[in-house]
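Report of the visiting student (M.T.), summer placement. My assignment was to run the structure pipeline on a short list of targets and document each run. The first record concerns Helix-turn-helix domain-containing protein.
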Amino acid sequence: MKEKALFFDRFILQVKRSDKSINAIEKELGYPRNSLNNYKNGGEPSGSRLIEIAEYFKVSPEFLIGRPRNSTVAEEISILPEEYFKQLRESQKKELILVVTKWIIDEFILDEK
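After the run finished, the structure tokens were exported:
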């Protein structure tokens, strides 16, 4: 629960720094109204939404969830895909499966038509 509260605290910090309202940010990102405000109640963003929010504020996803960036990209790439997958939470695994499935359809199935 600590990470979830930390995410919302850091999210609000970025909102204040932007001098915009949460609703204005939701509109710019194309999110439904109050979808970002729901994280106040302990909700946690999906992996793809976390990345979108981080990119919007020009911060790292790790910053938003309160994890230190102690590994380099080379170290992260060197992890076997199976090991990386095992480290994910169930919700992250489902999100990754959806992203990969969409990519496969877009790249291989739709390109053949």
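The longest helix spans residues 90-109. The chain has seven helices and no strands. I thank the supervising group for their guidance throughout the placement.
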